[in-house]
Specification:
The complex is a heterotrimer of chains A (345), B (331) and C (324). Chain A is of the alpha/beta class and 345 residues long. In chain A, 34% of the residues lie in helices and 23% in strands. Chain A folds into two domains: 222 residues, P-loop containing nucleotide triphosphate hydrolases (Rossmann fold), CATH 3.40.50; 112 residues, no CATH class. Chain B contains twelve helices and four strands. In chain B, helix 11 packs antiparallel against helix 12. Chain B has two domains: 60 residues, no CATH class; 222 residues, MetI-like (MetI-like fold, Orthogonal Bundle). With 331 residues, chain B is mainly alpha-helical. Chain C has a domain of 176 residues: P-loop containing nucleotide triphosphate hydrolases (Rossmann fold, 3-Layer(aba) Sandwich). The longest helix of chain C is centred in the middle third of the chain and has 18 residues. The chains are: A alpha/beta (345), B mainly alpha (331), C alpha/beta (324). Chains in contact: A-B, A-C, B-C. Chains A and C meet through helix 6, helix 7, helix 8, helix 9 and helix 10 of A and helix 6, helix 7, helix 8, helix 9 and helix 10 of C.
Chain lengths: 345, 331, 324
């Protein structure tokens, strides 16, 4: 298996007071070494639930999960979905690491930075205290923190937001993981600091040949760092492909809608944004047909009333670019491409 | 850091001084003649006047307060000539009802109260924090339900009910713990009798507080378990045990310690009901008795002492908080 | 040229704070807004953009006198309102409104939507033709809410719809000025576009002047006629939107523009990015001279000594010793 991470047909449901939520429905994603795969979607699209289940961090008592999440570790591999928790723990932070959205709250406020970093190493290398401390200093300087020896003795509140995210990255890399999951890593940061962190992630990826699974709602960030993209809507992947396919040749009406609705710098400001009408559906009562149908302007192009009655499959002429839509691909290809061209100029 | 401590200590001292002025003033302004209370049935105005001069009640209030205050540091001499007697420093006044220096009474009562408070404290912290942790860990399952029954009972049964229950059933009917008729003995002199003396009062007090601390710990731990940094700890691959006992408890420690220190400070001021039920000669019972008997110097002394303990504990908590929560530390 | 609707001159807002030094408390000031000046014309949208802590939100609230200014002058509709007492501000509030960032916390959860939107009428004792209820229904319709939902509570609405409620409340009395404080940053992309379009339409129809506060340059560019870039309480550059975005003169504007990733992978791959080093300095103790000098790549000796004035460079006003 050349991929470091293979999510196959992942389904996650959990009960709420209002009913059963189908948060993730049949998601398949692979990540290969040195590659950045982005999951884009709005709130409630299932992107964060997907990322948490890769580490088995979803609520295990309540959640029903099926499919497989194969993580490769040198010669062996593990299916996170079916493996027992203590086995998964051996993979967390060692084979797959994760950084989170809010660096302010993701570090323990009462422990020194150095010891929080060292702990990440010690979990998987018990007893090797000195090695852990050295690795902590090495990682701190790798992520661009000057005077690591001094700063390792400080507490998180003494760091700025950008610096804390650097610390989080350093902590995630303590055991040279094969895959890094970055869940909205720059959403809480200012744009100039965001640029620093994205650059840092790119540099580190080249140096360490990691696979990165990036979760974000920001299409600009996707365009900047991703190699391949999965667009999620209401728990399902609606389009999957190379970054250029997604941005210049979108096949799913939702992807097209997103691209048309973001304001872009450089485009004439007086031009009206083409908003997607309506609201995302509730995950408790999903429509029987395509979840996007109530907001879609292309349903008339689809045969019969298929959009209202049938869930579309993820299909594509090429394996590398697939989408879910009842409108024949040839028909979408032409009209969508013209629209996206219009949106870009 | 030391400067911060000094600053706090300075303000704590000022507060204690202020409390002593207010307490002394309030009790002195009560519509009783303290001198008239000093003599029994065969009272003549002459004796009252003599006692008034002897105890200094003839002086203006501010001077009385000054004598009281200086007595704490220098000791105080009452009367003159053959009737002269001295309460050595630290003197908190003289009790006419007991015909003794208040300090001597405190010396008798304090060890009882301190032993009562500390023993109860140890029991309630172990039980309360332990149960709270278990309840949080098994949230919504059996242990949680059982602990919530305990919380409900513990918080709703007043100490005079649990205390009387222990006294009547455990001691008198079932004779599990013998009725201790002798007074307080130090643990070093006779450990068996010491525990017989204290075990039921401890339990009486501890049940109430343990119930509060079970609820408090459970809530604090559950809140902490929802924090982002706990998710980070799990993402590192730490075991659930480490996550709970190290990362979660470390964060929950600060609020629990604060609350516990203030509660124990309150107890040292006197666990009046418990001491009364079990007839413990502690500070609470002494205060109660002196209130009945209008023994003002004792009331003033115990009130100021209790306030001082609470204020000092607050100071200690402030300082300890700096160590417990690095964010509070002054750079 | 007609007189501006709003004229802000050298506006300052310092928040007092303190630090313990031994037994003494040293008094310090957070210089949240430190001398900003601009005019706002009738029907114009001014974008106020900058990173967190640059003072843009404080500026917006001080202009509306929700916070008392420390110094400077605010002239609204020809009237100096800088030192006007709250009681005398009330009649003016008909003309100046605010839209908040967080549509979840800005609406009273115990009031129905109808009650929330009709509050301005009650407070200002305005009785529109046909009654308040009819007017509120018309407002709801106008912002794209179903008037039948008059008696619902805020929690029954999604984020985007709640922001519409906030907008309906703000435009109820047909104000002349609206300060929109990050009105779309809490919303999802597809909803964000709806709300931006709504604000755009309402402004065109009613000729409202808007101060649009945001950290997202793409949004600001889309909606504003002019843009002011703030950094540490000061305006670094102010210009017409197309001038600012096509030819930024201040190094900070350049860096900010360069940092925003665009949904264009090919463009992103070929782009030379300026990455600023370090973090924002503390507004309690801002750098001497030009406040940007600690992060600027063009910094010279004079930048550390002399504070640059806002001067005309090309078509923009720029506060820089070495404008591009």
């Amino acid at each position: 298996m050349k991929n470091l991470l293979e999510i196959r047909d992942l389904k996650v449901t959990f009960p709420t007071d209002d009913g059963l939520v189908q948060a993730v429905d049949g998601v398949s994603i692979e990540v290969a070494p040195g590659e950045t795969v982005a999951i884009v979607g709005e709130s409630g699209s299932g992107k964060t639930v997907t990322s948490l289940s890769v580490l088995g961090l979803h609520n295990r008592k309540l959640t029903q999960i099926s499919g497989s999440i194969i993580v490769k570790d040198k010669d062996e591999s593990l299916d996170i979905v079916s493996a027992p928790l203590d086995k998964i723990r051996g993979y967390r932070g060692r084979v797959v690491s994760m950084i989170f959205q809010d660096p302010m709250s993701s570090l323990h406020p009462y422990y020194k930075i150095g010891s929080q970093l060292a702990e990440a190493y010690l979990v998987h290398h018990p007893g090797q205290k000195e090695a852990a401390n050295n690795k902590a200093l090495e990682m701190l300087s790798l992520v661009g923190i000057s005077e690591p020896k001094v700063r390792a003795k400080e507490y998180p509140h003494q760091f700025s937001g950008g610096m804390r995210q650097r610390v989080m990255i350093a902590m995630a890399l303590m055991n040279d993981p094969a895959v890094l999951i970055a869940d909205e890593p720059t959403t809480a940061l200012d744009v100039t600091v965001q640029a620093q962190i994205l650059q840092l992630l790119k540099d580190l990826q080249q140096k360490l040949n990691m696979g990165i699974l990036l979760i974000t709602h920001d299409l600009g960030i996707v365009a900047q760092v991703a190699d391949r993209v999965s667009v999620m809507y209401a728990g399902r992947i609606v389009e999957q492909g190379g970054v250029d396919d997604i941005f210049y040749n979108p096949h799913a009406p939702y992807t097209l809608g997103l691209l048309k609705s973001v304001p872009r710098i450089g485009r004439a400001g007086s031009e009206r944004l083409k908003a997607i009408p309506g609201q995302p559906p509730s995950l408790i009562n999903l429509p029987t047909g395509c979840a996007f149908a109530p907001r879609c302007e292309y349903i008339s192009l689809a045969p019969g009333d298929s959009c209202q009655t049938l869930k579309p499959d993820l299909l594509g002429l090429a394996d590398s670019h697939r989408s879910r839509c009842h409108v024949p691909e040839g028909m979408r290809d032409k009209s969508f491409a013209a629209e996206i061209k219009g949106a870009r100029t | 850091m030391p400067r911060f401590i000094l600053r706090r200590a300075y303000f704590a001292t000022l507060t204690i001084l202020l409390v002593s002025i207010v307490v002394y003033g309030v009790f002195s302004l009560l519509p009783f003649d303290p001198a008239a209370l000093t003599c029994g049935q065969k009272c003549t105005p002459a004796i009252v006047e003599a006692n008034r001069v002897k105890l200094g009640f003839d002086k203006p209030l501010w001077e009385q307060y000054w004598l009281f205050l200086s007595g704490i540091f220098l000791g105080r001499t009452y009367g003159a000539g053959s009737a002269e007697f001295t309460c050595p420093a630290p003197s908190f006044g003289y009790s006419f009802n007991e015909n003794t220096c208040v300090t001597d009474m405190l010396k008798e009562a304090l060890p009882v109260t301190i032993n009562l408070a500390i023993g109860a404290f140890v029991i309630w912290m172990v039980v309360g924090v332990g149960l709270g942790l278990i309840a949080a860990k098994f949230r919504g399952r059996y242990p949680d339900t059982l602990s919530s029954v305990f919380v409900l009972l513990g918080t709703s049964l007043p100490t005079f009910v649990t205390g009387l229950f222990f006294l009547i059933y455990v001691t008198i009917k079932w004779k599990i713990v013998p009725l201790s008729l002798s007074g307080y003995v130090s643990v070093f002199d006779d450990p068996v009798r010491y525990f017989q003396y204290f075990i039921l009062p401890w339990l009486t007090l501890a049940i109430l507080y343990a119930a509060f601390y079970t609820r408090f710990t459970r809530a604090t731990v559950l809140e902490t378990l929802g924090e982002d940094y706990i998710r980070t700890a799990r993402a590192k691959g730490l075991s659930e045990k480490t996550v709970l006992l190290k990362h979660t408890m470390r964060a929950a420690l600060a609020p629990i310690t604060t609350s516990a220190s203030l509660d124990i400070a309150g107890l040292i001021g006197g666990a009046i009901i418990t001491e009364s039920i079990f007839n413990l000669a502690g500070l609470g019972r002494m205060t109660l008795q002196s209130v009945y008997e209008f023994d003002l110097s004792v009331v003033v002394a115990t009130t100021i002492l209790a306030a001082t303990v609470v204020i000092s504990m607050n100071l200690i908590v402030d300082i300890a908080y700096g160590y417990l929560d690095p964010r509070v530390r002054v750079k | 040229m007609s007189a501006p609707l709003l004229s802000v001159k050298n506006l300052q807002k310092y928040f007092p704070t303190s630090k313990n030094v031994g037994f003494r408390k040293e008094k310090l000031q957070v210089k949240a807004v430190d001398g900003i000046s601009f005019d706002l014309m009738k029907g114009e949208t001014l974008g106020l953009v900058g990173e967190s802590g640059c003072g843009k939100t404080t500026a917006g609230r001080t202009i509306l006198k929700l916070i008392e200014p420390t110094a400077g002058q605010i002239i609204f509709d020809g009237k100096d309102i800088t030192t006007l007492r709250p009681g005398l501000m009330t009649p003016l509030r008909v003309h100046m409104q605010i839209i908040f960032q967080d549509p979840f916390s800005a609406l009273n959860p115990r009031q129905t939507v109808g009650k929330i939107i009709s509050a301005p009428f009650e407070i200002q004792k305005v009785n529109p033709d046909g009654g308040v209820k009819k007017e509120v229904a018309a407002l709801m319709d106008r912002v794209g809410l179903n008037p039948e939902h008059y008696n619902r509570y805020p929690h029954e609405f999604s984020g985007g719809q709640r922001q519409r409620i906030g907008i309906a409340r703000a435009i109820a009395l047909k104000p002349k000025l609206i300060v929109a404080d990050e009105p779309v940053s809490a919303l999802d992309v597809s909803i964000q576009a709806q709300v931006i379009n709504l604000i755009d339409d309402l402004q065109k129809e009613d000729g409202i002047s808007i101060i649009f506060i945001a950290h997202d340059l793409s949004v600001v560019q889309h909606i504003s006629d002019r843009v002011a870039v703030m950094y540490l309480g000061k305006i670094m550059e102010i210009a017409k939107t197309e001038d600012l975005f096509s030819a930024p003169h201040h190094p900070y504007t350049t860096a900010l523009l360069s940092a925003v990733p665009q949904p264009d992978p090919r463009g992103e791959r070929s782009r030379e990015r300026i990455i600023l080093k370090g973090d924002l300095p503390s507004p309690i103790n801002p750098p001497e001279g030009c406040v940007f000098n600690t992060r600027c790549w063009k910094v010279q000796e004079i930048c550390r000594i002399k504070t640059p004035e806002l001067l005309t460079v090309g078509k923009s006003s720029v506060a820089c010793h070495f404008p591009e």
